[in-house]
Amino acid sequence: KPKDIKKVLKFINQHRTKPNIQYYGKAKGKNVFIIHLESFQQFLINYRVHGRLVTPNIDKFYHNDHTIAFDNFYHQVSQGKTSDAEMMLENSLFGLPQGSAMVTYGTQNTYQAAPAFLDQHGYSTAALHGDVPSFWNRDNTYKSWGYQYFFDSKYYKEKPSYNVGYGLKDKIFFKDASKYIQRLPQPFYAKLITLTNHYPYLLDKQNRSFPATKTGDKTVDPYVQTAHYLDQAFGEFLHYLHKTGLDKNSVVVAYGDHYGISNNHRPAIAQLLHKSNINSYDLAQFQKVPFMINYRGLQGKIDHTYGGEIDVLPTLMHLLGYKDNNTVQFGNDLLSNHRNQIVAFRNGNFVTPKFTVMGSDVYLTKTGKKIKPNAQQEKEIKADRHYVDEELSLSDQVIYGDLLRFYKPKGFKKVNKKDYNYKPSYG
Ligand code: GP9
Ligand code: MN
């Protein structure tokens, strides 16, 4: 068993990417905000309903002079949804093919996660979320990941009208969260997980300031309404960062965790995308989510590299100036110049700049044209598939076998879960 980690390290060492000197360490010492935009898909960017932008604040942030936004960035979650996204973002490990790794392996396993690492480099760390702490087993998993603080639903003002769907409404959440953020010693790493833009997209009347779409699919139509509300909440939070000057010394990372509209709604998706029908290529494209990095001094652009949630942590670590030569992370730095750009979906399908492979269907990624691969293409696809299968299976082995307990990277102190207590009386 202990030797299984060797196989993993061999694979990872083969695929480690060198940082891009243009970005390496350029955000050193800054605070980090991870803003989790619930169920937020890339198609919403610049999307209009009856001529009106659904998410004007996020659009503006996407195009901001100091934002690098990735337009070929995919969610890679499976059944673990939000929890899979969290696992990838903070560990660069995939969620599992079934269930949620945070639920099944969050409590017992050893992790070398972002919060623990940053804590050991002088950061204070906090997760903030307006749902009960047990959801997705966060209260236990966050200890394994080394979060110093977890400000769950108990920490915010309670009134029945403040909640909708899974918990606290995003505007109230961001506003209330600010009082905890204010008290975090700097530099800090703070993750804020939003909620309101979650299926079935419920919203109270006074917050409904955007018309639902009219596809006739009841589970799809209110999506833009809660997305609009999330956008307003996000806008208010950016305003707060500006007012307090926190925007001057903070990196703001914002991302959509996964689709809001599942593949079961093809006719509605077709209408939303103004297409007559939807094939598996369109569905692959539909799994894009925004990924944006913003800080003062960053020269903004739309970056077309192909990547996904697994790549976030290596990207962030390089920006913060931490050399990655001994971590167990399956992603690679999105800002690096020599990436393989193979994006694995959790079911083994994948997208590269050349090919989109969905089951037995192969498309050219640039045009969406369906092809019957020639011998040369077949060879490339086979190699891509091999990489995808290997990274998914090795990542699973790390989690199933709790392999990080056998690995002691230099400069990283093992997390002791007993050091953490998230009860409000300790807060
Ligand atoms: C619950 C929230 C929803 O706290 O994060 O998770 P999801 O259903 O999107 O996985
Ligand atoms: Mn989610």
Q: Can you offer a commentary on this structure?
A:
This protein has 427 residues and is an alpha/beta fold. The chain has helices at 4-15, 56-62, 81-91, 101-105, 114-119, 138-144, 170-183, 223-244, 266-272, 280-285, 312-319, 375-400, and strands at residues 31-37, 48-49, 52-53, 67-70, 73-74, 124-129, 149-151, 163-164, 167-168, 188-193, 250-256, 291-294, 301-303, 307-308, 343-344, 350-351, 355-358, 361-364, 370-371. The strands form 5 sheets. It has an 8-stranded mixed sheet with strand order 7-6-10-1-11-12-4-13. The protein has a 5-stranded antiparallel sheet with strand order 15-16-17-18-19. Strands 2-3 form a two-stranded antiparallel sheet. Strand 17 (355-358) and strand 18 (361-364) form a beta hairpin. The chain is globular and about 60 Å long. (2R)-2,3-dihydroxypropyl phosphate is lined by residues 81-82, 131, 135, 166, 193, 195, 198. Residues 81-82, 131, 135, 166, 193, 195, 198 line the site of (2R)-2,3-dihydroxypropyl phosphate.
